[in-house]
């Protein structure tokens, strides 16, 4: 009982806080300031999403086949050392990757997409590889013993059973991707980073927040979106969220 | 029919070569179950897996129904051999129906046919199709999963089955049930089966023949009864255990050692006649009384016949127990012990008396083969060297 009443009190408190924040922002004109940035936000958000979609889909298209190839028994010798290299690659800060790709590709969208692509590639490859390697060997033996060809084994047994892990990799990678896109502004590719960094430079918190809040919302949205896709696509028997 | 010809597997390991199977020669006739038996690491699984090339033989040949499989394409070979692995290995991403129909689909059956087949298989393994076909493996109990594993291997009706400890993962009670179901199925299906086990009791129960392995070599290949009666060497003997004579009780039917000569009296005989007959036949303490349909009706004890006058019909005792000709000796022995008897009347299907079984006959039958062995060719050193 006491716990419930405390919870109720907290809820009421939060509601009051939101209400007074609303009243305050209305009276101080902050809302109007935000609204003033709305056209910028809309324009930059499209750019932002575009950068994510480009680099993200490129990364998925390369990373999944790469993970599959590395997980083949024939690749066993090189795969582990290659994964080590990729793991080291992950530790390089994205800003450094962007700086590097700028020094090769100049400024603009192309080096930005490339840098983001590299940063997104690694988690997806790693999860694809680990997911496929993690498939129960008994399943693989059963599949082989039944007379499935290597391709049938991959499509009907390995991928469906690794899919949940692969989706988890995509979720992490793309959420990070959305959160990293603001850095692309620094090499002249636009995106919501423009508002964030300019806001910081100008000591204009409203401007900064009009970039930061939509970025955060985008990250949450893409995370939820992939979770929903995973829920629908991963077969029920191997989908922990549908157990 | 499965025939292995000098089948050999040598594994190259960092610690040197391991000979997992050493020139295995054996043949499983069509429609029989052959059990590969032996201690852990003796090469049972390796031998089995060379048949469907999960393990590639180092040398030697596998013939199936007389055909050398060396030239066959691996996928084709495997689709025509049912394979049940120890870990069951149902595909968790597929429904039970998809699991069962996977081989028929690979073989290109049309949809109506493989759907019907799935229901047929479910009936065969005694699971309700409507309740189970749409479920996923994780929603089944271990025993049910094991049954589905067998159904999946049988779905395309392959002539040959390989089973690696298929019932290993189930508790003893359910295991016995599944073993019985499987044997019943086998009576109709008549598959040629290689079956790995490390459980002697399972081997004796399930096998038409048993192959005992030791360190990659086939030590003895014979029927369960021969194996128990005449173990080839000290290794087989110790592997079978001290109580192997008792295990044979399961294998011998009453029919095999029944003596059809049995003295009986009828209700209208006098006790005097009964006593005379008891003495004539040399019975120790009693004689069986039968009715006009030759069914066991009672027994007349010697002591009573000696001290009392009158007719049998007024002085009999209840028959303690009877055995059927098709019962095994285990049941007969159990009844004898339970009722403190040294003999039991035997009846046929119709219930008419057709002989008796005595403790002496049982013990001498069980001992005979074994004594014969010890008498003649028992040369342990030669047998082990082999
Ligand atoms: N892939 C492999 N590489 C190297 N050695 C192997 C391999 N597979 C099996 N062996 C060795 O071959 C021998 C026979 O193994 P096998 O699996 O056939 O035994 P088993 O009779 O089935 O034993 P268990 O009852 O424990 O299953 C063992 O010594 C084992 O260590
Ligand atoms: Mg084994």
From TrEMBL, chain A:
Q: Which Pfam families match?
A: BPD_transp_1 (PF00528)
Which InterPro entries does the entry link to? ABC_transp_perm/SBD, MetI-like, MetI-like_sf
Give the way it sits in the membrane.
Multi-pass membrane protein
Database matches in PROSITE patterns: ABC_TM1
ABC transmembrane type-1 domain span: 45-230
Q: Where are the transmembrane segments?
A: 49-70, 82-100, 106-124, 162-187, 207-234
How is this protein named in the record?
ABC transporter permease
Automatic annotation (TrEMBL), chain B:
Provide the alphabetized UniProt keywords: ATP-binding, Cell inner membrane, Cell membrane, Membrane, Nucleotide-binding, Repeat, Transport
**Reactions catalysed, as given in the entry:** a quaternary ammonium(out) + ATP + H2O = a quaternary ammonium(in) + ADP + phosphate + H(+)
Record GO biological process: amino acid transport; glycine betaine transport
Q: Name one Pfam family in it.
A: CBS
Q: Where is the ABC transporter domain?
A: 2-240
Name its cellular compartments: Cell inner membrane
What is a single cellular component term in the Gene Ontology annotation?
Answer: plasma membrane
Q: Which PROSITE patterns does this UniProt record tie to the protein? A: ABC_TRANSPORTER_1, ABC_TRANSPORTER_2
Identify its membrane topology class. Answer: Peripheral membrane protein
Does Kinase show up as a keyword for this record? no
Q: What is its EC number?
A: 7.6.2.9
- What NCBIfam families does the entry give? proV
User: Could you say which protein family the record assigns here?
Assistant: Belongs to the ABC transporter superfamily.
Query: How does this protein assemble?
Result: The complex is probably composed of two ATP-binding proteins, two transmembrane proteins and a solute-binding protein.
Q: What is this protein called?
A: Quaternary amine transport ATP-binding protein
Q: Which taxonomic lineage does the organism of this UniProt entry have?
A: Bacteria, Pseudomonadati, Pseudomonadota, Gammaproteobacteria, Oceanospirillales
């Amino acid at each position: 009982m006491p716990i419930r009443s405390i919870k109720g009190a907290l809820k009421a408190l939060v509601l009051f806080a939101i209400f007074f924040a609303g009243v305050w922002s209305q009276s101080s004109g902050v809302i109007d300031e935000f609204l003033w940035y709305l056209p910028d936000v809309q324009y930059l958000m499209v750019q932002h999403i575009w950068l994510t979609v480009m680099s993200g889909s490129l990364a998925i298209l390369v990373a999944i086949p790469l993970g599959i190839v590395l997980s083949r028994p024939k690749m066993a010798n090189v795969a582990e050392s290659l994964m080590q290299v990729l793991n080291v690659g992950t530790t390089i800060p994205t800003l450094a990757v962007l700086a590097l790709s700028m020094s090769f590709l100049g400024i603009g969208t192309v080096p930005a997409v490339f840098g983001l692509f590299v940063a997104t590639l690694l988690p997806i490859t790693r999860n694809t590889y680990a997911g496929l390697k993690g498939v129960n060997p008994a399943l693989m033996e059963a599949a082989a013993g039944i007379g499935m060809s290597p391709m049938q084994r991959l499509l009907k047994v390995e991928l469906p059973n690794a899919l949940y892990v692969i989706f988890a990799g995509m979720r992490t990678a793309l959420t990070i991707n959305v959160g990293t896109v603001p850095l692309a502004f620094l090499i002249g590719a636009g995106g919501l980073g423009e508002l964030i960094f300019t806001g910081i430079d100008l000591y204009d918190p409203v401007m900064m927040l009009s970039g930061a809040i939509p970025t955060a919302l985008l990250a949450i949205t893409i995370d939820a979106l992939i979770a929903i896709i995973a829920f629908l696509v991963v077969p029920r028997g191997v989908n922990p969220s549908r157990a | 029919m499965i025939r292995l010809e000098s089948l050999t597997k040598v594994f190259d390991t960092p610690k040197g070569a391991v000979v997992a199977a050493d020139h295995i020669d054996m043949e499983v006739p069509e429609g029989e179950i052959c059990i590969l038996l032996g201690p852990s690491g003796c090469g049972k699984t390796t031998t089995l897996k060379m048949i469907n090339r999960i393990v590639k033989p180092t040398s030697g040949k596998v013939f199936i129904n007389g055909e050398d499989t060396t030239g066959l394409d691996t996928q084709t070979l495997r689709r025509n051999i049912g394979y049940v692995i120890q870990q069951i290995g149902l595909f968790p991403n597929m429904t039970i129906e998809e699991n069962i129909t996977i081989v028929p689909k690979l073989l290109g059956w049309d949809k109506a046919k493989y759907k019907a087949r799935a229901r047929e298989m479910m009936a065969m393994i005694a699971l309700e199709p409507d309740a189970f076909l749409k479920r996923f493996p994780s929603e089944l109990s271990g025993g049910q999963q094991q049954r589905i594993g067998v159904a999946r291997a049988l779905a395309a009706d392959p002539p040959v089955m390989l089973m690696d400890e298929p019932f290993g993962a189930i508790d003893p009670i359910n295991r016995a049930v599944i073993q019985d179901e499987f044997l019943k199925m086998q009576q109709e299906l008549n598959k040629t089966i290689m079956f790995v086990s490390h459980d002697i009791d399972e081997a004796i129960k399930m096998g038409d023949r048993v192959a005992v392995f030791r360190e990659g070599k086939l030590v003895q290949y014979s029927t369960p009864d021969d194996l128990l009666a005449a173990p080839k060497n000290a290794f087989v003997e110790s592997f079978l255990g001290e109580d192997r004579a008792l295990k044979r009780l399961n294998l011998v039917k009453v029919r095999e050692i029944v003596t059809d000569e049995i003295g009986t009296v009828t209700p209208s005989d006098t006790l005097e006649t009964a006593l005379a007959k008891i003495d004539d036949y040399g019975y120790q303490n009693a004689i069986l009384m039968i009715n006009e349909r030759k069914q066991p009706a009672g027994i007349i004890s010697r002591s009573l016949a000696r001290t009392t006058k009158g007719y049998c019909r007024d002085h009999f005792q209840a028959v303690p127990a009877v055995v059927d000709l098709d019962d095994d000796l285990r049941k007969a022995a159990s009844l004898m012990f339970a009722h403190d008897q040294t003999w039991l009347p035997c009846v046929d299907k119709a219930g008419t008396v057709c002989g008796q079984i005595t403790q002496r006959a049982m013990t001498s039958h069980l001992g005979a083969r074994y004594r014969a062995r010890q008498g003649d060719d028992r040369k342990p050193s030669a047998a082990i060297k082999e």
